[in-house]
User: Fold these one by one.
Assistant:
Number 1:
Amino acid sequence: MAEISSNFIHNIIDKDLEDQTYGDRPVYTRFPPEPNGYLHIGHAKSICLNFTTAQKYGGKCNLRYDDTNPVKEDVEYVTSIEEDVRWLGFQWEKRLWASDYFDTMYECALKLIKKGKAYVCDLTADEIKNTRGTLTRPGEESPYRNRTIEENLALFEEMRQGKYANGEKVLRAKIDMASPNINMRDPVIYRIAHAEHHNTGDKWCIYPMYDFAHPIEDAIEEITHSICTLEFEDHRPLYDWVLQELDWPMPPQQIEFARLNLTNTVMSKRYLKALVDDGTVSGWDDPRMPTIAGIRRRGYTPEAVRDFCERIGVAKANSTVDISLLEHCVREDLKEKVESRMVILDPLKVTITNYPEDMTEEMKIENNKENEAMGTRMVPFSRELYVEREDFMEVPAKKYFRLFPGNEVRFKSAYFITCNEVVKDEEGNVVELLCTYDPETRCDSGFEGRKVKGTIHWVDAKTAVPLKVRLYDYLMMEDENGETYINPESEKVVEAFAEPSLKDAKPGERFQFFRKGYYIADSKLFSKDELVFNQIVDLKSSWKK
Ligand code: ATP
Ligand code: MG
């Protein structure tokens, strides 16, 4: 007996393998995006599920573009989809287009007509909708339902030849107008659309509907388990009906799982496209976007996204996952992987008045406190420094152990420093701290004379390099009624000062800014002349197990 997995889909597959439902065929899944936008984190869930399921069983997974709608292909979307799947770490078995199967789908439609299982209907879209019935009332049969097979074949041929305008006629499956499942009440399976298709050009003016096309696509590719989201559950009887009426041997089976919903996130290509088109964001890959391109540019790692998808599991009921879990996975992944640097985001100048004017020392600092193997680096220290403004309080709050007049703190990997005097401008703003250091307390001297409670970081003013750092808050917020609105303060750009080594960063390189969080050199905007960094995630987690 196979072990019961928390992933119910794997339990279904285990049973199918035991029963030899598919003979000796391999487990075969597919990821079927419509190339009408960039993929988002919800798609990442589907990608991970389909590809890792195939991997687990030594099977295969196809990338199949669902292009049964005759819209112009957007090469940008196709390229982005493939880049995203590869970035997540997966490689498809075959890359296919649903439109490659139009001939077969047409043959299948003919087969249904010849079996008396499909008919040409002249009702308008509205009439079809109005005669469909409701959950409590059966639908009404179309007056065209009993056309002869010959008549249907002739009319369908005329539809194909382009004799009719869009919407003038449709092909409907002849199932059951009284079915408790409305999808089974003679659904439309082919419609007329006089439109150019990116793949088939003007060969066709009739196009198959998704519910008819999808099972055929799966069957042709010998998909065994066709995984989709819950909204297709009521369509499954139609999926099965199509393949059964076509006498397809060992037909694939559709399995539904709950789509991923995340707090502070809208996952709809249409919604995200609107944000791009109206300029709310700088593009599909704006680091605030929940697109895979966006989170990649933001600095999230494929490992973190895969870990997240694994942790949330596969559910049968819709729910909303807290985005802080995704952030937690990012932190966990970066913790031992990236080097730390000292960066001051909101600088306050410090002068060590008893430190020699022209002296500079090199202080040795570990690159990653959690991972000794990452070694150390030397960081310059001299008389003038920057510290974070929030590391100083003129009148300290209770339990505030950082800089305030009269208090001594440790400057990370350097000396004990005492704040003596506060310099203010005409408006009374603190502009500089005058401090003294104790030469005895150099961090590598083994000094044990006394202890201090606070440790703060610093950057040497003379050698500091300026950074442009983009700090992020959630792009999408929810008001008290649960309505999503766009946060007008989701991006804040600050001028920061960093230790000199950051000027050698490479675009796409990630760091921990000591005591602050994780940051990435922006893959597009970072250059030698302008060191642009994006905040990936802060250090502290609001997520509780
Ligand atoms: P959107 O409404 O954002 O365009 P879609 O479902 O129409 O989403 P498709 O390109 O048709 O987008 O989806 C490709 C695959 O990704 C489908 O199998 C779909 O079920 C799955 N998918 C889409 N959104 C999610 C989600 N939030 N969680 C899990 N899977 C998803
Ligand atoms: Mg869609």
Note: The chain has a mean pLDDT of 96.
Number 2:
Amino acid sequence: MCGIVGYIGNRDCLGLIIDGLKRLEYRGYDSAGVAILNEDGEINIFKKKGKVKELESQFDFKKLKGHTGIGHTRWATHGEPNDINAHPQSDMTGNISLVHNGIIENFKTLKRKLENEGYTFTSDTDTEVLANLIQYHFKQKNDFELAVRLALTEVEGTYGLAVMNRSEPDKIIIARMGSPLMFGLGKDEIIVSSDAAAIINITKNVIYLEDGEMAVIKFDGFKIKTIKDEEIYREVMKLDYDLEEIEKSGFDHYMLKEICEQPEAIQNTYRGRINFGNGEVKLGGIESVKDDIINARKIIIIACGTAWHAGLLGEYMLEEYCRIPTEVEYASEFRYRNPIIEKGDVVLVISQSGETADTMAALKEAKRLGAVTVGIVNSVGSSIAREVDAGTYIHAGPEIGVASTKAFTCQLMSLILITLMIGKSKGTISEKELKEITEEIKVLPDKMKEIINKRNDYKFIAEEFKDSRNFLYLGRGFNFPVALEGALKLKEISYIHAEGYPAAEMKHGPIALIDENMPVVFIAPKDKTYDKIISNIEEIKARKGKIITIATQDDNEINNYSDYILRVPKTHPILSPILNSIPLQFLSYYIATARGCNVDQPRNLAKSVTVE
Ligand code: G6P
């Protein structure tokens, strides 16, 4: 949610900040703004409703020179997206300029207090209140760092923020509570950001702030403290990916690029982790808690959105192959319902970004209750990755498109690896089946490529259905979560209403919706659920619904039941959700593009939801 960039160094910073904001736009894109300290010591602020390119087109930026600045791309929480509510926000005097990600929960109380002191406000934002609160303390103490610290001790809620002060122009102060923030150390320059994507083109050497910490960033160095004024030493970390990985590489959209990258991404998830000779799986990051996982009394999987769908499949796999009772929970529900955690329980947390606020809060609650916590995370060094007791990275590479694609299939692969690791150790999976699965994993990337190479076939179906108002996605067993994920992808990027359901459960309600205008997508692999799925298809056909099937390559019988067929190669049932997800990703992508939707930045959504 919201992207923050800040710069202090020897270069003119406006272009660098704008460039960084563009890379962060996937986090929020309803308005954008910059504050630059110019050569006369004044802070110039430019902000605009809409995307960063609208900000650029509005103002004659070229005239603006300066070596210190902050910028923001917003996903609105308090106050509608408009020019006034865009960040940076200033205090009443124009001395303080602030960009902020998060929510100041007690902003109304703070605002009343400041109004009583004669402060006035122009926006609806909680951020403007914080800017004034900093100025209020600065006026008393005449010390910027102290003013920020005093203001933050009064604040309840979450923030990642960067703030400048015209009266102390040689520094940017940043602080973090619940919203990610880091800075990169370049040569004679420091760049601050909520996300490594805005830093990687300048440096790979980064420092992550932790909750409750602030840093004073100056041209010639930095110092980190807690907001209680304790000095902190923090190691420099190395980013583990390159600039090319976060660029579109000739694809029309990040989403399309990321769908097509999946064969390689999946290989990165399992590379070096499976001994294909004996089927043993070794996940270095969770070795320390391997015994806790194998002997778990219960596993609780916590996640949000697409990661929750991966978690649901995790539940199916862990129960089937490891015989460990498993529950999957929405992070936002788990934390508020007094969950039961007992000795021997393991909590698996799944998150692409590693920054989702609800997932992080649920993780902390699980730790507080005494669970062993294990992360399945994509973003290296992210907050969740650092908070868990142990974890495994999915190594999908940066995912920029708001609709998650490669992270989902790589999360599934990580869950499969964990399942195989436990199943082999406990002896709940036969050596024969283990061999079959690992042999199939070896050829999975090629089978994924086969589907990707046929992607033009999906355009025709997308054209047929682009004006539909509703879709139903049905699957059974391992492919029920795939149906949920397929429906979510369509909703997110094409704004067509879609629901995923267990195929048989459809009779208990959704069947009432079926008529000749209703497309129904069936995930119908040739496995033990096949005959039942065929019966469910018959039920829809009898009511004239349009049938689109995701079917196994050599299944001719399905021709009798389908209006449209999307073929996938045969594989082991545990791997079939990975293959079956790809045609559904393409279907939603091509429907959305046929409707002229902005696939990478769908309305109202954000890639990383860092507010509750
Ligand atoms: C947002 C994104 C989804 C994602 C969810 C959880 O809603 O738009 O694509 O699945 O957050 O994010 P996480 O980073 O924790 O996996």
Note: The first strand starts at residue 3 and ends at 9.
